[in-house]
Predict the structure.
Amino acid sequence: MTFAARCLILACGNTLREDDGIGPFLAQWAEEHWRDDARVRVLCDHQWTPEMAEEVAAAETVIFVDASLDQAPGQILLRELTPATLKPALVTHHLGAAELLSVGRDLYGMQPRKACLMTIGAGSVELGEGLSPAVRDAMPAAKDLLEVTVRQLLG
Amino acid sequence: MESDPAQRHIFGVAAARPELGRAGIALRRFGQHIIELLGTKRIHTGWVIPGGVAEPLSSANRDEILAMMPEAYANISLALAAYKQIADKFQQEISVFANFPSNYLGLINEDESIEFTDGALRLIGPKGDIIEDGITAQRFTEQIGEAVEAYSYTKFVYYKPLGYPEGSYRVGPLARLNIVKSMGTSKANQELADFKQIAAGPVESSFFYHHARLVEVMYGIERIEEILADPLILDKHVRATAGVNRLDGASQIEAPRGTLSHHYKVDDDGKITWANLVVATGHNNKAMNRGVLQAAKCYVKDGKFTEGALNRVEAVIRTFDPCLSCSTHAFGQMPLAMTLLSAEGEVVDQVVR
């Protein structure tokens, strides 16, 4: 049941909250793009949850994809990620990317050779479907960066 | 309850007992993976739809779920054993975690076994006596009322014939196990027999919601296996279609955290014009508030909150598994603020998490 992907793309977001749908949008594209490539596995949900930890831990490499309210709308950032210390007030229904790495390492004794977090600045996360113009314009660049990153991670 | 705040979360427990942490996460994954298999795709799953489901279950997916059963049984057995091993260490918490006589409401079958989707509601009193049986969704609004308190945004639900607050009651795993005579499956029946040994009548402390929840998980796994063993589960006819033939409809089920009632009115196009939801947290609201008071009286001393007291008051709320956490997910954390007031209304102590 647990897949040891060579490259796991793990996205999250809500398509009913405007730009929060960036993650699901890119995940859907990635799933179609790498449909015939067994080395790449794509997962997406509204939130990152503890049951994803084993798969994250077992993957050779992981790319987390999410929207960010801390960046300018449409700005794309990619950074390397290491396991985070779990905070006391942790909400166990959902986890951050670095926390998920930490849970995977602590419970399953494994962690990906390399993990990175790709975030795209959200302009609005109000109720509604569809992406804002700035985020929509950034999607081609986000897809390109995702493709280049997957290629690099697969070596 | 007095442990280092940095370790006081589920992953702190998992660090102390990794096998238990892995089992808990595996049980969650078991449920989530079934949803994924039924949903035909991982993104934008929309399997359950009006009139039935979108796609029949394939034999391959049925077999994949069946292959997960042994691990699921092992994990819930581990969890039940671990719970029983440590529960006795929490006698004081058991005695003040919403530990009082109350009424209990839940769905039940005609043979008095547990039910989640059909059957009708039964209300029992503090000694286990049946107050009313056979409350159907059609009669729900006749029998169940909604009160408002100035200090809460959440409704306080009660049984109308007894009035408010005397007609308040508890719902959810504890209530269901107090109401039923049988779980309807063998392993869960054995666990129910153990549970019934806790008290001569209804089990009163909300601490035992945890125990009841584990018994229900065992029941759920057994029911999944039973359902999958029926060849009819692979039937290709999985959806009935119909137009709007009534403008007013109500239904009630048992959600994991308790009784859930939905009542809708629609126009001739089927668009919703009115809706009223009565969720488990509303049913349990009075009991949760009484539980907070009971725990606070025991653990808050000398006009000061301590970490242990704060944790226990929060733990009372969590026994009920209220939906307050889900409804605040948009903000990333569940905010928790506690204020201690003197008899004169002056703030004596305050903590915010």
In short: Chain A touches chain B through 29 residues (CB under 8 Å).
